[in-house]
Amino acid sequence: MKDFVLAYNIGDRLYLNITNRCTNQCAFCIKNTERGVGYNLWLEREPGADEVIGSLGILSPYSEIVFCGYGEPLVRIDLVRKVAGYLKKKCRKPVRVNTNGHADLIHGPGSVVKLRGLVDRINVSLNAHCSEKYLEICRPMFGPGAYEAVVKFAESCIGVIPEITLSVVEWPGVDIEKCREVAKILGVNFCLRKYGG
Ligand code: SF4
Asked: Is the pTM of this model over 0.90?
């Protein structure tokens, strides 16, 4: 497989791969499985914003551009800002960030404000109905309190990012209805994903 893949498509979406780093170690992460997405997404080094922009190619075929990849994109929130700013000038495609919701733990409170006007959709991985389950499944480096911080981060997106979704991977022991209730209380979208889906 080709190495140093910064942009790849699945269907009509373009995905941007900007870091391997993540503040979780989820049991279901593709980094921990033999499967993948059909590309070698491991980055030998982290790309600069110019390199990511240079990898975009022609954008017209895509319905959406998504910061996703092997790691947690908001570890590099300043790079996301630069590339999303470029995309906003270059095309009218919606820009989405798939995140573990740790941005405030990494960068300090109110971090999502940096993405205002640049990101249209944010998908925050909740992945558990309570703190204990989150610690067990996602194994956050921040330890206890990380789950509450994820919920708080999702709440902080309200009024900043136009479309907010809490997502959960179907996993043994996770109470999906309780997760759905968290999204309902916040007033954001909810998405249930099949493991590997
Ligand atoms: S948050 Fe995403 S990238 Fe990080 S360990 Fe979990 S599944 Fe992997």
From this structure: yes
